[in-house]
């Protein structure tokens, strides 16, 4: 379906043509008519499917047609990076429109605070904000939301994972009850349903490829011990003529260690984590997007919500703690129907976690044999590990006889029976 078929205003179509947007993605095709009809919406779609344009375009179209001079739409997001990215997309879509937007996020820069305050008080048409920083402005009393018509939650599942449920509900108290509320999420766990019941009214629902990587991703994995991971990584990247690579790791310490090793072996690599100042993080991302940095080593801070196109290779240095996070990590590649590769390094303690991922995405991911020069590798045997767990239980979830007989109460320790 082409964008001109949605009946958008000529000004908006001019912006889309300038950005070479022609055909809508499935999530755009299914959600834009719902949003244009003014209905509340829950949209569940994996990362990289065009969710941002799905909600921005119909909102911009309404602003063009109905006029605007005060805050009309509020987009809540989990991270400042995503707020900045959406604000940048707004600039593109609204190039031929007289519509203003502002990104509201945390930081200690007094100049940035004053810029945000000025944008909120003078009435930017669209506000893109992290919940915590927006609440700081709202409690000061100078932000008026009585003209708001649209509340949009982007990466809603991630916001709840980060503990923003109460913050979201606090923000909602400042908003008009009569509004259109749109919720976009990559996954739909029970807590998302709970949030939806609290803030949406009879929503339509759209589900697109829930919790499965894009078809264009070639997925593979290696079984390794921890001491083999960095040597394997250096071996994998040697002589690879790939302009854009992301390596994900769970901790800042590992990220620094990986980047230090790669740099020491002559790779053009840079690490990014929450330890960096905001300006430094933005500079690293900018250099990576511009292909001045080949390898970006990152924590999950950019696993979601950062729109970096044409990633050739994603490497999970360790298995994501949550199975759904795997989808977000590997979703950095094969975006917009392109091809990409995702490789995961699995140690002997991560086998069952990776097994959960395979069950979630309903795929048995190929395990590439480890080069014998790196030594013997662990065996991927989740079934045996699960059997072992079951054998360790005596009947209906009770400890086996040996474990019960070997149990000793700690002195002074009371049991649930008051012993």
Automatic annotation (TrEMBL):
InterPro entries: DEAD/DEAH_box_helicase_dom, DEAD/DEAH_RhlB, DEAD_box_RNA_helicase, Helicase_ATP-bd, Helicase_C-like, P-loop_NTPase, RNA-helicase_DEAD-box_CS, RNA_helicase_DEAD_Q_motif. Residues 32-206 form the Helicase ATP-binding domain. The keyword Nucleotide-binding applies. Residues 379-419 are annotated as: Disordered. Pfam families: DEAD, Helicase_C. A motif (Q motif) lies at residues 1-29. Belongs to the DEAD box helicase family. This is DEAD/DEAH box helicase. It comes from Carboxylicivirga mesophila.
